Amino acid sequence: MKILVSAKRVSDPNAKLAIAKDGKWIEGDVEYILNPFCENAIECALQIAEANEGTETVAIGIGDDETARFIRQGALARGIDRGILVSAEEASIDSDLIARIYQGVVHREKPDIVLLGKQAIDGDSNQVGQLLAEYLGWPQATFASKVEVSGNKAIVTREVDGGLETLEVSLPCVITADLRLNEPRFASLAGIMKAKKKPFDELEIDDLDLEDTDTKVQIVGLSTPSGRKAGVIVKDVTELVQKLRSEARAI
Amino acid sequence: MHTLPDAFLAAIARGFPDDFASTDADDLRTYGRDWTRVFEAAPSLIVFPRTTDEVSRLLALANQHRVAVVPSGGRTGLAAGAVACRGEVVLSLSRMRHMAPVDVSGGTVRVQAGAITEVVHQHAGEHDMTWPVDFASKGSSQIGGNIATNAGGVKVIRYGLTRQWVLGLEVVLADGRVLELGGALEKNNTGIDLRQLFIGSEGILGVITEATLKLTRNPGKLDVLLFAVDDLAGVLRLFREVRRAPLVPMAYEFFTDVCLRRVLQHRTLRAPFAAPSSHYVLLEVERGDKLDDWIASLFDRELVRDGVLAQSPQEAADLWSLREGISESLSATGMPHKNDISLPVAALEAFTSRLDAVFQARYPGWEIAVFGHVGDGNLHINVMKPDDMAKAAFLAHAKEADRDMFALVAEHHGSISAEHGIGLLKKAALPYTRTADEIAIMRAMKAVLDPNGILNPGKIFD
Lengths: 251, 462
Ligand SMILES: Cc1cc2nc3c(=O)[nH]c(=O)nc-3n(C[C@H](O)[C@H](O)[C@H](O)COP(=O)(O)OP(=O)(O)OC[C@H]3O[C@@H](n4cnc5c(N)ncnc54)[C@H](O)[C@@H]3O)c2cc1C
Description:
The structure holds two protein chains of two kinds. Chain A has a single domain (2-246), classed as HUPs (Rossmann fold, 3-Layer(aba) Sandwich), CATH 3.40.50. In chain A, 27% of the residues lie in helices and 28% in strands. Chain A contains six helices and 13 strands. Chain A has helices at residues 36-51, 65-76, 95-109, 128-136, 189-195, 237-246, and strands spanning 2-6, 9-11, 18-19, 26-27, 32-34, 56-63, 82-87, 113-117, 140-150, 153-160, 163-170, 173-177, 200-204. Chain A has a nine-stranded mixed sheet, with helices on both faces. Chain A has a two-stranded antiparallel ribbon with strand order 2-5. A two-stranded antiparallel ribbon of chain A has the order 3-4. In chain A, helix 3 crosses helix 4. Chain B is α+β, with helices and mostly antiparallel strands. Chain B contains 15 helices and 17 strands. Chain B has helices at residues 6-15, 25-31, 52-64, 117-125, 143-148, 156-159, 194-198, 232-244, 257-266, 291-300, 313-324, 326-333, 348-362, 391-411, 436-449; strands at 21-22, 45-47, 69-72, 89-92, 108-112, 129-130, 166-172, 178-181, 207-214, 216-217, 222-229, 249-256, 279-286, 306-309, 336-342, 368-372, 378-384. Chain B has a seven-stranded antiparallel sheet with strand order 14-11-13-12-16-17-15, sandwiched between helices. The complex binds flavin-adenine dinucleotide (FAD). Residues 34-35, 70-78, 81-82, 93, 113, 135-137, 141-142, 144-146, 148-149, 151-154, 202-203, 207-208, 327-328, 419-420, 423, 456, 459 of chain B line the site of flavin-adenine dinucleotide.
């Protein structure tokens, strides 16, 4: 079996971000982390591989040298067999192009399962897995909280509003990971050193023979959420009710 | 039941705000004890001054009426220094938490003694600076308590003790006189440095009301690693490598698998390694490009069995929780008898090999959790109460066994209390580390500053 798994870097949610001068991207000394949902996908791929001897796992990331570091340390160091970096400037691609890049890689690699995070925690688009399944014409099981692979199918439990839903999908398929799927392991130092010697391919978008490389989404502008106004202390219930009515217009 | 003189109580009612004093049962219980649970809290009254002037007038009054006063900070102390079990008045600094703006060019900040350690960190952090005294109880401990205990913590290997980070102190003496010691001066060689006398004095010489703290720049990005090694000798071998490595170590902490199991039992954290090891080392370093090669060399020479490197700030925090969660987890999941000893680093190995024999004789088969700031020669040794043993019998047994350990500490020129202080808890053990002459000098100094013995009586010595 072969599993293709995503390794996307995202800006640390605890970092203070600044908007770049052109108003269309972020800048500053941003600390990046591996997308937590990708960590769940990677852990899931490793567990499937550990249970199914002969499984090959491949991590793919889209970006620059920094992204390469996350593929190595976040995926290969944890035990993924090899890495693929598709060079692209992150600011200039959208979910649709990312899905098409994945499609191109899938055509080259022919995996049985593509395991992605359900979304990237910075852009929060939640589109790549679904678009990819559509382009490939494969079944998809999104928001997985449990994955069991047996024979030629995967049984996936997904978290939906109001409960759990269990799907059976035939391979090849696309699965996207939710947070409760598993607890990602730490990257061991031995793994980090081994990762340096693991096979690592770098591709250009042009190498993938994509029919369509247009982006469909344009970032028009970014803005920070308006800051919260300081609270006031009211002296009694009457004043509270009056303020709720006149200022907050809540009643 | 202890009763305070009527005249004293009347003077308090007359001279201070309505909410100054409390005899509320909850307050008496809460403010009568610290983190230790050995002594029964029994204070008579809790007072909550807001200003140095109120502290001064209260002490003058207590001095006049010979009323014992226990200075009280965040009550996270581990030596029962802030415990009031003999009808004392507890003087809580918790309302005195004002912080002046940070002086960026001087690299200082003036705060009242009741300011919470972590809040001071945040205050300085707004200018990318920090007060580098750091440990697990920082969310509750106060600057005054940190200074009164000369607190250490997890960054001593990089920054030293509290003593290094206090430029000036305002102290109120037992008779109400207010001293301003040192101010904001970096240099001040004008005779005996009285400020240093109060740092680490556990509230027996005066009440600290304000301090000018020295700040330093925040460190840059940090890397956090956790290593698995086979034994304490392995921990020390690795430490020798760290000392010589082209790295700036911020912390070198160790703990045993016994500690890890208690933490994982108490908190929902993921186990760092697939297979357990007997000893672990947490290393924090300033990020640099030499780290990879250094790690590779450790594996080449088989100095570590396994290791992990935090890949994100969250993972770094998770690894730190494994170390910082130990104290709390031991208390939450059982009853530890704690010791906090230090040895010259060079003597640690010889000491611990002999200690094993003491443990085997005194505590055969008992659970003993050892961790600590091994880079400072500091071991925290926690003997856990067996489930089927009564508390009193356990404490009596542990006290007996302590004597053997302390004798061994003295033989290796160590200290029976590295950073937690003496308080009530370690009083009997003081002579293992300090000579009769030294203790006599300490008593003489106490007599000069507090002739009536009203300040924290019975702490450090009788
Ligand atoms: C989980 C945990 C981890 C810890 N880790 C460490 C560690 O790594 N290193 C370390 O050194 N300690 C450690 N401690 C011990 C403790 O937190 C420190 O000693 C701390 O500095 C005590 O501060 P506090 O404000 O809580 O003082 P308290 O416990 O309130 O008081 C301690 C002593 O100082 C006196 N005192 C308090 N305030 C004043 C004042 N304003 N003027 C005069 N005397 C005063 C008290 O009378 C008492 O004798 C730890 C404690 C816990 C619970």
